[in-house]
Amino acid sequence: MRRALLVVDVQYGFDDVGYWGHRSNPACEANIEALMAAWRTAGQPIVRIVHDSSTAGSPLAAGTPGNAIKEQVAGPVDLEVHKSVHSAFHGHPDLDGWLRSEAVDGIAVCGITTNMCCETTARIGSDLGYDLWFVLDATAGYDLPSTDGSVVTAAQLARSTAAIIAADFGTVIDTETACASVSVASTV
Fold first, then answer.
1. Half-sphere exposure of 12 (CA within 13 A, CB side)
2. CA-CA distance, 11 to 68, in Å (whole number)?
3. Which of 62, 109, 64, 102 is nearest to 82 (CA)?
4. Interatomic CA distance for residues 61 and 84, integer angstroms
């Protein structure tokens, strides 16, 4: 099986604690580096996604320092997709068209943020028929205010995302298992 690694929105703007608040999973970027190394070794495709925010004051706005990709995900990739919405499947160039032209059957999603762009990309990818791995420990998210005024922690949001993905969209997997499995898949 050809399985593309989708590296979602690993950009410096997500380091802005004043804008985003408390972040989960400080190991996210290191886990993504490990995934990218495994995918390169296995000869599997890597897609980097960049969020070009159109929200006023966003640290991810195109042309700002925060829009730049982090050094951990720099380097050659097979495709770079730019988007201004949650799903990488609604960016440019056309991710679905490219994956199909490359005979890709599956996707592995990692990046920032767990319950927003990563989850949305994963759900749409699954709905389009791709075999989905959601690499939970290679994602990070932020606490969010609830409608009742309380705070939903990033850890709670990650658990919710994992439950939703596992219930009906694909497989929730960790970095170690994904790295070992992609190596096996590329040699079969």
1. 12
2. 6
3. 62
4. 9
Q: In this predicted model, what pLDDT tens digit does every residue of 49-89 receive, in sequence order?
A: 999 999 999 999 999 999 999 999 999 999 999 999 999 99
Tokens 């199909």, located at residue: 100
| Number of separate helices (H) and strands (E) present in the chain | 6, 8
**Structure-block tokens of residue 51:** 């969020």
Give the burial class of 8: count Cβ atoms within 10 A of its Cβ; 0-12 exposed, 13-18 middle, 19 or more buried: buried
pLDDT, tens digit, 9 for 90 and up, residues 119-148: 999 999 999 999 999 999 999 999 999 999
Q: What are phi and psi of 157, to 5 degrees?
A: -65, -40
**Average confidence (pLDDT) over 10-37:** 97
**Range 21-52 burial, b when 16+ CB lie within 10 A, else e:** eebbbeebbebbbbbbebbeebebbbbbbbbb
